[in-house]
Amino acid sequence: MKVLRYILKKEFKQIFRDKTILAMMFALPTIQLIILPLAMNFDVKNVKLAVVDNDHSPYSRQLIAKISSSGYFRIVAAESSFKAALKYIEREKADLVLEIPAGFESNLVKEGTQKLGVSVDAINGTKAAIGGGYLQTVIIDYNKEIPINAGSAPPAGVIDITYSNWFNPLAEYRFYVVPAVMVLLLTLIGGFMSALNIVREKEVGTIEQINVTPIQKWEFILGKLIPFWVVGMIVFTLGLAVAWVVYGIWPVGSFATLYLFAAIYLVALLGFGLLISTYTSNQLQAMFVAFFFIMIFMLMSGLFTSVDSMPAWAKVIANLTPVTHFIKVMRMIVLKGSGFADVQLEFLYLVIFAAVLNGWAILNYRKTS
């Protein structure tokens, strides 16, 4: 243990001596956690709408007024033909075109039904789908309010559905994305910093001096892991503080369970970074290899898309990354208040990842004299 204490003393001095690394590890994650959830907001507002009203009746004007007052749409043009309105989509000045046909009011009054034309710019698939869904909801809501339906009783057998959003009542995207971004930043800091660690010793030539000393391999790896583990736990605490102060997100579940998972996750992640460091010979190689794997971790972790909606082969890859399990745990504990019994399977996964990756790093580190 005396040897390990000397290694730790050296590593902490090396970390705190480099002001750039300190800024990268503490200031950058804090700034990114403030900015990224704002930029990653998938809520669609101010959808640009071009309207073609071929009826010019009170009913058509009421429908247009209801759409514009919904808070989701901004009417950018009112054209006399569909061809003219379509040019706004071609010039990217509109996201949707709503065409109200001639005889809109009379068909509603006489026949009780009327079709509307909605054209959606699908280049931005997310905005197109959500914007089109918003418009459909507003039209359905308007259909319930028009006089021909207001005075009649609902037909027999109609089911009225009332739903609520549990754990996120207002369906605010920040509650969903902030816990995942915290995991992402912890992954970037832990993965990159540890991956560059042993390689830096190789580049400056101090690795040869270490190799001729009676330091055991496990002591060397542990001495490299513990300082970044401590830094990672501090960064995690800062992330929780930023989430509370900036976004008003306070974990519903146990802090002890949250920190237990963060501690195990960091061990697994730092083992992964150190493993990369033992395979590469310079910092450029280590950086590119780490970037390759971390990009896969990010894209397949459920941060942007649900793991459940992925193909079977992608689900297998997603479940083989520790990031997927920790993001799931973060959302369950922070938003749902889940206890350890609810997430014990994820804990087992992370323990296995930590043991395999660190054991592999220790075995792969070749100490030669």
Q: Give the helix level as a range of percent.
A: 55-70%
Strand order, largest beta sheet: 2-1-3-4
Task: Give the number of helices.
Answer: 16
Mean of all residue-level pLDDT scores = 83
Order of helices and strands: HHEHEHEHEHHHHHHHHHHH
Termini Cα gap: 22 Å
Number of domains: 2
Number of strands: 4
As a percent range, the share of strand residues is 5-15%
The value of Rg in angstroms is 28 Å
Could you describe the largest sheet, including whether it forms a barrel? 4 strands, mixed
Low-confidence stretches at least 5 residues in length (pLDDT < 50)? 149-159
User: How does the overall form come out from the CA principal axes?
Assistant: elongated
Oligomer: single chain
Find the structural class using helix and strand composition: alpha/beta
How do the strands and helices of this protein lay out in sequence?
Elements: H1 2-17, H2 19-39, E1 47-53, H3 58-68, E2 73-79, H4 82-90, E3 96-100, H5 104-111, E4 117-120, H6 125-145, H7 147-150, H8 173-195, H9 197-204, H10 206-211, H11 217-247, H12 255-279, H13 283-299, H14 312-319, H15 322-336, H16 344-364
Parallel strand pairs: 1-2, 1-3
Antiparallel strand pairs: 3-4
Helix pairs in contact: 1-11, 2-8, 2-11, 8-11, 8-12, 8-13, 8-15, 11-12, 12-13, 12-15, 12-16, 15-16
